[in-house]
Design goal:
The protein contains one helix and 22 strands. It has about 300 residues and is mainly beta.
Length: about 300
């Protein structure tokens, strides 16, 4: 979604916690990280909030992280980035806005778009994830997701969901969808039906505007729309376990007249590399995280 549309007021999605019967496998087996190669056995998330309530308070608050830039890559400054994934040496990216929404495969070192498919003009594209040779992409207010063949980008299916779609990621059991509220929805990847919800809280405070998502080392990373912060979220309780502050990542001289907000997280599990970018940013960054109490090393480019 655009900043103007957000500021003009978006009706909040009704938060209705529910679970579909017959999920199989029971609710005690939690999701795990890096599930691209496994055959999922859908279960209900182990500690869903129904109705949404804060998780139990603990003495320790979220960790605070800042960043060090490891590398910079060119990025299409016209790309209104909604979703970002790294797979086998390439970035896969979805972009938004009516008439500009696309799915694309990008060569990292040049930023060249190697493969692209455009969505219909009435579709406002949002986040995406890749699983078992398929690309899943959601839309903002059309209540429709799209499934593509990874190699050909041919559309091979659609799926529906109520309310809005913002970000999308996965672990080895579920697709995980954000909708702009503080709710994360868990979808059965075999039929795309919703099987559970988790509410995201920092202490007793709900954390909404959850946008683009990425599953990294057992935690969900979520861009917080219109901010330079990324929330690190426990996928079982919804507790925010860390905050990543990316203020100053894109320098003032690197910004253009159309540069928008931070959005886009990708992770290379094989080499433990984390990438971030933003809407209409001219650069995509590889970063490492540093605890805020630690001094930062000199940036690399």
């Amino acid at each position: 979604m655009t900043t103007q549309q957000f500021l003009s007021g978006v009706a909040a999605t009704l938060i209705v916690g529910f679970f579909l019967a017959g999920c199989g496998g029971g609710g005690d087996a939690p999701p795990h990280a890096n599930g691209n190669d496994s055959t999922p056995t859908p279960t209900t998330p182990s500690t869903p909030n129904n109705p949404p309530t804060p998780p139990p308070a603990t003495a320790a608050g979220p960790e605070e992280f800042t960043f060090e830039v490891v590398n910079k890559f060119p990025h299409d400054p016209k790309a209104y980035t909604q979703g970002l994934v790294w797979l086998d040496g390439f970035f896969y990216e979805t972009t938004g806005l009516n008439g500009e929404s696309t799915l694309r495969k990008v060569e990292p070192t040049t930023g060249n778009v190697l493969q692209k498919v455009a969505l219909d003009r009435e579709i406002f594209g949002e986040g995406m994830t890749i699983r078992d040779g398929k690309i899943y992409q959601v839309s903002w207010r059309n209540q429709t997701g799209f499934i593509y063949d990874l190699n050909t980008f041919s559309q091979i299916g659609t799926f529906q969901y109520p309310g809005e779609g913002w970000g999308l990621t996965q672990n080895d059991q579920y697709l995980i969808l954000s909708d702009g509220t503080n709710i994360l929805r868990y979808l059965d990847p075999t039929n795309l039906h919703e099987v559970g919800r988790v509410s995201v809280f920092d202490g007793a405070t709900p954390v909404d505007q959850l946008n683009e998502l990425e599953f990294v080392n057992g935690k969900i990373l979520a861009n917080i729309y219109q901010t330079d912060r990324i929330a690190q979220i426990d996928p079982y309780s919804g507790k925010v376990t860390g905050w990543i502050n990316l203020s100053g990542l894109l320098k003032p001289e690197e910004r253009g007249p159309d540069t928008e907000v931070l959005n886009g997280i990708a992770y290379d599990a094989k080499t433990d590399r984390l990438f971030v970018t933003g809407k209409r940013w001219p650069l995509l960054f590889q970063i490492t995280l540093k605890k805020a109490s630690q001094p930062l090393a000199a940036n690399h480019s």
